[in-house]
Amino acid sequence: NNVTVTNSLGGTVTGLGSGASNILNQAGDFTSGVANLTTDGITYTGASGAGTFTFTPASGTAVTSSSVTISPGAATKLVVTGTGTQTAGTSNSITITAKDASGNTATGYTGSKNLTFSGATSSTAPVTTAKVTNSAATDIAFGTTTALTFASGAVTTNMKLY
């Protein structure tokens, strides 16, 4: 009796069954009628938050779990956001957010992190290097390691382009 696994968070359940992405269908999936989803290799990819999982057998009654909290995964990328325009020499507030593979904010990404900003060239007359403000409120030139302190997966700082 194949059992299909779905969820209320809209993510994808994988790693179950014999090649099927979300079906418990092997005798080894169950011990005394109970499936240990961690041992069976279930993987959930999608939004973090509170949700439920529904287990629907090919015949019989579906069962829905109580609320399960899915935490974000480890940071796999940094996303920089700010305003779309900037006046040369003035500060532009930017937010850097650590994201997991599913695009959730990686709230466990905390503490001081050393980042190096690049891409902006110096102005020519007078020569002025682009800068970003570190966590000690000191302007640091692009191309130089900048210490920023992340809390709950994000940090806000200032950037100056010339």
Q: Mind explaining what this structure looks like?
A:
The protein is an all-beta fold and 162 residues long. It contains one helix and 17 strands. It has one helix spanning 37-40; strands spanning 3-7, 12-14, 23-24, 43-45, 49-51, 53-57, 63-64, 68-70, 77-82, 91-99, 111-116, 123-124, 127-128, 131-133, 139-141, 145-150, 154-160. The strands form six sheets. Strands 9-10-17-14-15 form a five-stranded antiparallel β-sheet, with no helix packed on it. A four-stranded antiparallel β-sheet has the order 3-1-6-7, with no helix packed on it. The longest helix is centred in the first third of the chain and has 4 residues, at 37-40. The protein is rod-shaped and about 75 Å long. 18% of the residues are buried. The model has no long low-confidence stretch (mean pLDDT 89).
